[in-house]
C-alpha cells in the first residue's frame, strides 16, 4: 500500500458497538477517526453549507432559541415521512460526502498511517472507492437489544421499529470485506481488530 497507509470504512447496525471499535482503533492504533454523523452535524450549524437549505425546506419552526437546528424537531418531521426524509438526504448527503472526502484527502497527506471512516450507510455514497477495506461490525440481535435498552433506555417497540428500517445482516455481509464479531468480550473484539490491522500495516 502506498506509503504504508490504510483507509478503513466502518459500518453496522444500531447497537452493534461501532463506537467501541472506533475507540479501540483510536487508542490502540492511533487511527484518524472520521464520523459521518458528526460531519453532518457540523455542516448543519449556522453559517455552514447545509443550514440554509434545511431551514428553507423545513421552516424556522425547527430552530432553537439560539437559531441552531433542533435535530429532534427535524427528526420528528422526517421520521414518519419517507418523501421528506428523501428530500433531507438530497439536501445534505452530497455536502457531507464531499466534506468526508476532503478530510480523507487531508489525512492521507499527513503522517497518518490509519484512517477510519464510520457511517451507518457507506456504500453508494461515492467515497467508498477510497477505502482499502470495508468492515462490518456484526453483533447478534439479542446483544444489540440488550445494549440499546441499557445505553439508551429504548423499549422493545422502539427497537423493533429501528431494526426494521436497518440494512439487513445479509446485505451488510455481502458488501463487507471484513466482518468483526462484536457479540462477545471486549478482548475478543480487540483480538480480531489487532489481527486485521496488523495484517497489512
Mean pLDDT over all positions: 88
Low-confidence runs of at least 5 consecutive residues: none
Strand percent estimate: 5-15%
What form results from the Cα inertia axes?
globular
Word description of this protein:
It is a single chain. With 201 residues, the protein is α/β, with parallel strands linked by helices. It folds into 2 domains: 1-30 and 113-201, P-loop containing nucleotide triphosphate hydrolases (Rossmann fold, 3-Layer(aba) Sandwich), CATH 3.40.50; 38-111, P-loop containing nucleotide triphosphate hydrolases (Rossmann fold). Helices cover 54% and strands 12% of the residues. The protein contains 9 helices and 5 strands, in the order βαβααααββαααβα. A 5-stranded parallel beta sheet has the order 2-3-1-4-5, with helices on both faces. Helix 1 (18-29) packs across helix 9 (186-200) and helix 3 (49-58) packs antiparallel against helix 5 (82-109). The longest helix is centred in the middle third of the chain and has 28 residues, at 82-109. The radius of gyration is 18 Å and the shape is globular. The model has no long low-confidence stretch (mean pLDDT 88).
